[in-house]
Design goal:
Elements: H1 6-20, E1 41-45, H2 47-57, E2 64-68, H3 83-91, E3 96-100, E4 103-108, E5 120-122, E6 125-130, E7 137-143, E8 146-153, E9 155-159, H4 167-170, E10 182-188, E11 201-204, E12 209-214, E13 219-223, E14 227-231, E15 236-241, E16 246-250, H5 256-263
Parallel strand pairs: 1-2
Antiparallel strand pairs: 3-16, 4-5, 4-15, 6-9, 6-13, 7-8, 7-12, 9-10, 10-11, 12-15, 13-14
């Protein structure tokens, strides 16, 4: 849950009581991320909280039910008023689990071998971006092991289809249907005057991207808006389709295009 929201605290207590009254054990994955035999993870907050919950639940294979306490709610499934009804439907087996592609993000520090301890999972995106204002970074990009292009920009976004409506969209990247298996590479404010290729690139899920920090400026890696790793020149970030997908609980068919229309206030002229 989002600890700064009183509504989340109240709903967390309501959730715990509902399940414990029915003989279930309730744990806080934030306090016990290695809990096993998790049948359902409940996220109480906005999309940011949902991303954090997915990060904790995906290695456990647990499906995640998102309860929307935020503004946009792209990832969440139910509103607070439908909380207990959604639990009843889950217990009755009246639900489906939608699998969403995730990214396996690995960091290799200069002169080191790849370190599993620096592996992260992204449902939305991995972003390598500048640290200091006024200083662009330079990134050497390879696709599936083959050199592609050197970028001079504020940063680069590697996005999943789910994340295409997040940072990628604000950087004018394309929106992908969440059922597509692909990743999007989108530059953030490319600066080089001879940088003619400043568009997004959509890659197949079987391809992978390697970003190497070159030049003199450091950078930072931000995964799903929270997990950060400081990068120095020579450090490498590798993004590929993760073996484990995120599992999202849904009730009925989610109309992605209707959600877009609603969230962006789109209407026929």
């Amino acid at each position: 849950m989002h600890p700064a929201r009183p509504a989340a605290t109240r709903l967390a207590a309501q959730t715990r009581t509902w399940w414990e009254d029915r003989g279930y054990e309730v744990v806080d994955l934030g306090e016990d991320p290695t809990a096993d035999k998790v049948e359902l993870a409940v996220s109480l907050g906005g999309d940011g909280t949902m991303l954090r919950t997915v990060e904790l639940a995906t290695p456990l294979g647990a499906p995640v039910l998102g309860v929307n306490l935020g503004r946009m709610g792209y990832l969440t499934e139910v509103e607070p008023a439908g909380l207990e009804t959604s639990f009843e439907r889950f217990v009755a087996g009246n639900y489906t689990v939608a699998e969403r592609m995730t990214l396996a993000v690995e960091v290799t520090k200069r002169g080191e071998e790849r370190s599993p301890a620096r592996g992260l999972v992204a449902l939305n995106e991995a972003v390598v971006e500048k640290v200091a204002p006024g200083h662009t970074i330079r990134l050497d990009v390879a696709i599936s092991g083959r050199p592609f292009l050197k970028y001079a920009a504020d940063g680069l976004i590697v996005s999943t289809p789910t994340g295409s409506t997040a940072y990628n969209l604000s950087a004018r990247g394309p929106i992908l249907s969440p059922s597509v298996r692909a990743m999007v590479l989108t530059p953030i404010s490319p600066h080089s005057p001879h940088m003619l290729f400043d568009r997004s690139l959509v890659l197949d899920a079987s391809e992978w991207v390697r970003l190497t920090v070159v030049g003199a400026q450091p950078a930072t890696l931000v995964v799903d808006g929270s997990a950060t790793v400081q990068l120095a020149p020579g450090d490498v970030v590798t993004c590929r389709t993760a073996e484990t997908a995120a599992r999202i609980v849904t009730f009925g068919r989610r109309d992605f295009h209707a959600i877009l229309r609603r969230k962006f206030g789109l209407a026929d002229s």
